[in-house]
Amino acid sequence: MDTEMLKKERLSLVHQTVRMETKPERILNSANIYGWANVFDKEPLSTVLRDYALIERDFRKMCEDYYFDLISQVAFRNIPAVMDPLENAFYIINDENNSVECTEFDLMGNDGYVEIGNDYFKYAWETMMQRKFPILSDPEKRSDAIFKSAKEYFDMMGKAAEFNNILEQEYGIPTSNNALMPGPLFGFDMLFLTARGIKPLSIDLRRKTDELIEACDKINAVYNDPLFADESIGSNPDVSFDYNSAVMCQNFLNQKQADRIYGPTLKRFFTHLVDHDKTMRYFVEGSARVFMDYLKDVPKGHLDLATEQDDIFEMRKQLPDICLEGGMLCTYLGTKKEEECIEYAKKLCNEIGRDGGYIFSQDKMMQFKNDAKPENLKAVGKFVHEYRG
């Protein structure tokens, strides 16, 4: 089978799996890999992440060795060359531990909620960026730093497109991310990831609740209103999912807080998804516990829930109409024998994938060397590829 036919076959299996109308011929194997592919090189990680030839070598190995049908992270993330001209001090490449670390930050301060809510992009460029990269406040160095960083950024985006073509045209593997229609973003996550940081934001949840939520609502509108302008009906057959969304900051919230911060956007978007007969991959980092009531209301055939820390067997009982993705324990992949990993993969396929509606994947974003032994990942990949239950 040529690669174009292989890609179409895989896309067809994705659509059958998510729609849950008929049981697919086989279970798909999706890569929840973000950095793990780069930590087995003899070169230091700081060198690998600055060399696209080395990144491509690792990327091709991932495509060739592990029987993946879907890949969400195409080749790389956290490319340091983009931030090197800005004298980056926030992201640290730890060669000893083969990891990328982020220092704690607060780029917004105690009085930024009104400004960031009124115009997130203006506040980000004029205030937060200069606090994050002080060189941007230096009129003698600013222009050269921006030019060099922008050049590296466009080089990176060009490589990303090139690697995406390699993925689809040479290996017949579709990406699980539809870059043309990314899906809903959430203001709370934006504040956590780009502006306020974990400690100040946690304090604001109690002391500045109304200001925080008002800013979240305004950011939500900026990012998400354009999605609701899409009035087309039905799925795009040329992509894995019509929308993609990822969320992680719900892990810091209780149910009442999550209902107030995430609830309105989730309800609105899930309604749009069903009314327009679309599909979405919803990657919930950590636990989806606070979203369960919203997920239960989504009818069959619209949602692929990529879950991490939740008990996927219990999730199947509570969410019979939702396609589930994940389940393969990295604690097994990283420490157990091949036969033990295969036995657990078989349990997942037999129980979660018995009637369809299941995409096999790892139970966390794989970034560290101990997340999986290569031989274990290859063994379970081969098993899932050949499984016909």
What does this structure look like?
By secondary structure, this protein is of the alpha/beta class. It has one domain (3-386): TIM Barrel (Alpha-Beta Barrel). The chain has 17 helices and nine strands. A seven-stranded parallel β-sheet has the order 2-1-9-8-7-6-5, with helices on both faces. A two-stranded antiparallel ribbon has the order 3-4. β3 and β4 form a beta hairpin. The model has no long low-confidence stretch (mean pLDDT 92). α1 crosses α7, α3 packs parallel to α7 (142-171) and α16 packs parallel to α17 (374-386).
What is the fold-level CATH name, i.e. the topology? TIM Barrel
Order of H and E elements = HEHHEHEEHHHHHHEHHEHEHEHHEH
- Quick check: average pLDDT? 92
Topology, number of strands: 9
Enumerate the strands of the largest sheet in spatial order, edge to edge or round the barrel.
2-1-9-8-7-6-5
Q: Please identify, by name, the CATH architecture.
A: Alpha-Beta Barrel
- Structural class given helices, strands, pairing? alpha/beta
Number of domains: 1
Assigned CATH class: Alpha Beta
Let me know the largest β-sheet.
7 strands, parallel
Head-to-tail CA distance between termini: 23 Å
Number of helices: 17
Low-confidence stretches: none
Report Rg: 21 Å
> What proportion of the residues form beta strands (DSSP E)?
5-15%
What helical percentage do the residues reach? 40-55%
The geometry reads as: globular
